[in-house]
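Anyone? Bumping this.
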Amino acid sequence: MGECTDTHTHIVTYDSTLRDGEQGEGISFSLEDKLRIVERLDAFGIDVIEGGYPASNPKDIAFFQRVASMQLSHAKVAAFGSTCRKGVAAQEDTGLADLLASGAPIVTIVGKCHEEQVTRALRTTLQENVRMVRDSVSYLVSQGVEVVFDAEHFFDGYEANPAYALEVLRAASEAGASSIDLCETNGGKLPMHIYRVVSEVTQALPGQRFGIHCHNDSGCAVANTLMAVAAGATQVQGTVNGFGERVGNADLLTVIADLQLKMGKHCVDDLTQLTGVANFVAECCNVTLPARTPYTGQSAFAHKGGLHASALARYSAAYEHESPEAVGNEQRVLVSELAGKASLVTKAKSLGLDLSGQPNLVQEILDDVKAREAAGYSYEVADGSLALLIMRHLGTSKPHFTLESFRVIVDDREDEGALARDAESEATIKIHVGDARYVATGEGVGPVGALDNALRQAIGESYPEVANIELVDFKVRILDESVGTNAITRVTITTSDGTHTWGTVSVSENIIEASWNALVDSVEYGLTRMGK
Amino acid sequence: MGECTDTHTHIVTYDSTLRDGEQGEGISFSLEDKLRIVERLDAFGIDVIEGGYPASNPKDIAFFQRVASMQLSHAKVAAFGSTCRKGVAAQEDTGLADLLASGAPIVTIVGKCHEEQVTRALRTTLQENVRMVRDSVSYLVSQGVEVVFDAEHFFDGYEANPAYALEVLRAASEAGASSIDLCETNGGKLPMHIYRVVSEVTQALPGQRFGIHCHNDSGCAVANTLMAVAAGATQVQGTVNGFGERVGNADLLTVIADLQLKMGKHCVDDLTQLTGVANFVAECCNVTLPARTPYTGQSAFAHKGGLHASALARYSAAYEHESPEAVGNEQRVLVSELAGKASLVTKAKSLGLDLSGQPNLVQEILDDVKAREAAGYSYEVADGSLALLIMRHLGTSKPHFTLESFRVIVDDREDEGALARDAESEATIKIHVGDARYVATGEGVGPVGALDNALRQAIGESYPEVANIELVDFKVRILDESVGTNAITRVTITTSDGTHTWGTVSVSENIIEASWNALVDSVEYGLTRMGK
């Protein structure tokens, strides 16, 4: 079997987090989340980012409009959809028209290869299905886009009727598909099976680029993906952290690390971003990255056994398959990507703050960050709060205002209806700007809105530019789930001035207080950025 | 091993949950937990249960005493330890004496096969290491126990010096080891590598039984285990749910299901216990079984996509690799805006509510669900709220209490420090239970805690069982239909009565009101479940 490693063959990475990943239970992205993930995956060096299904919903349509104006440095965005419908010419098909209208340079269309799926799920003839595939691919190619053909249920179909499954692939290949991605849709196949079938298929259609798309239902998604590459596939589909329907897709990050570190392939230039990307996407989904995620999880290089720990002290290779630093992770349990001095200096630099040549100060900041992370803070998406923290240590922080106190009152009466709207909130804050003291009361539907309104009133006279600073997202996480409503709450706010976006974070046992502190950071950092 | 061996090769299952599993971060078992797990694994049909390290701690010594008096129907218990120490004769070694004193019918000893490990970690000669292995195995065999030899770091050792690694195995084999289990200790190997090495080793020592022990550091533990079986191994080590050091061991349950359902092997007679065993052991560890665990997780057969859901209604094989019933799990159709009538009826049934034969009512409920989902509700994880909603439509809902009004006050003063603690919350609620009216005030660090306390006070006299209902998770998500702090907030609460867990959801522009409504649903559904 193809164990031998060849050096530097590039394997195309195709990320489906925003489409297939969102099929996972409990996973949903806002439009802003999706755009931030695109930015991050692009910076990481992912080749293709599947953005969504523009024929299906307004959020995805807006996504393709917004993403078209982004300056991506490397990645191409793919729009996902189906072949034309049965009995409809490709150029008449509204679904294909929507895909083209998305403006995405790559269009991925899913089509059937399993005779039973054609007759029972699609309810058409085998010939018509081949026509749909051929016409759809060739029409899309004629319109100037790159076409990826997702061969749904391919492995089951090939098992049931290999000749027909291959006929469908041949149609897609002849029509000009740039890649044919074999989908192990139900996730039940084992590695040896995948290896054999991909070997046969790549030999049957020489010169055609093949990709692989696996699900983890038999616990083999990563292995199946690697076996497909060993058998000749050169494009790998997956999702960040393996998010996806049922038990999820192949974890693209694990696949990338395995291909690059263990199979001598090339996927990305900077593998040290791996852990950061994993945590970033998990944060966007508001889920915790499972600690036992290979390479990127908090426990991935954590050691507990006394036997192991003492051997480790002699040499790390004793119980570590790779260096944690190679994938941006750390030996033992560390809270975030900011664990080392060098990464803090790098991060500060990206925020416009120079920490070079000040090792003692860096250590002091790192200690502060670690203490706060131990208390529940997470700076992974909160660059605004991190910048303010660093500035406080640098002595360059100049708070624009200071709080004396606030009081929030929420009143509610019994209500009915899907969206209750009758609660009222009122916030009174007492604030100092320089020598002046302001008392302002804001109303709002919710308590954070009331605080926000009060804050804007109180400082609006001194800082009229606060009107340009707008909260765009507000996330809340409960950190210690075992203690119910008294658990520690982490609030993360995303704020925009129309051009830049920044995150801020605060932690408290009181959700209102955590919200207030994150809100203050968001406005403070906004004013600081504006040079006020 | 029963009738199945006539047609299917039996693969010996070796569970290491109680020893290697406990090396996992956050995993620990009490003595009682360990005994209950032994009982459960025995009933499930596991062949060998590794109980612990009797030379290392009093808990494990007590375990072997207690387990000796249990009437196990099938499983044999193994005691785990090391070979004799360097320079010590096997019969003089206190560690081996402890293993024998445990009374376990199987003794598993770990030994080194990697020359570098011998010289650097063990700090002895290659010859002395072979002597330690040979003498230890043959002494233990002479004392009447079955011996499993765990060949630590075998794959790395074989890569570095295959002749030496094989020499160690040959010593164990000649000394009478009943099984030699090849350990992929660092977890970094890939399936094709495992297949090749196990093939070579089984050919080099024909007639010897081999086992396999894998870790998941490259995301391939299950696949590596299966490949070893394909290459000739007939004993599989693993842990329930893959618990274990770093990213964990091969999940023995997934391995068993794959071997039995997909590779035609026999492991256990009743695979429908699989999901129950997974949840039982997770409960013993006080951790939640990850929803995306293959076969046994809550999401393993959950479907969300509209495309998939409609095809599933035609035939389940469309998007399921195996029948969920085969492994004691169940199909779940996630109710979401994509779902149809059939899935609502199925979902209601799983909640104990019969909607069959009432198409108009189903349509009415579906319209309500869709309207609520359009307003931001999500019933994917909120079974409790969905059940209450269906009951309201069925006319079987009997609210245990109704709200007249609440008022929440949060006070804060300026503070510093990583975790602010000085805010105070107070909630006053006015509630009716039947004809009685209760006014109660609760305090809390946060406003939701204050409301929760007030609610428990107000209804505690009428429903003392509310004390058994506990909030275990509380999630907040800001939906981006509008921006900023007046955005719509979705609160999802997970509640437990110690046995069952349910989710509730509410949506409001006011985070406090949404929290309140989700809290009310959580208590209401809890009381309803209890039949109050």
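Late reply, but here is one note on the structure posted above: The first strand of chain A starts at residue 9 and ends at 10.
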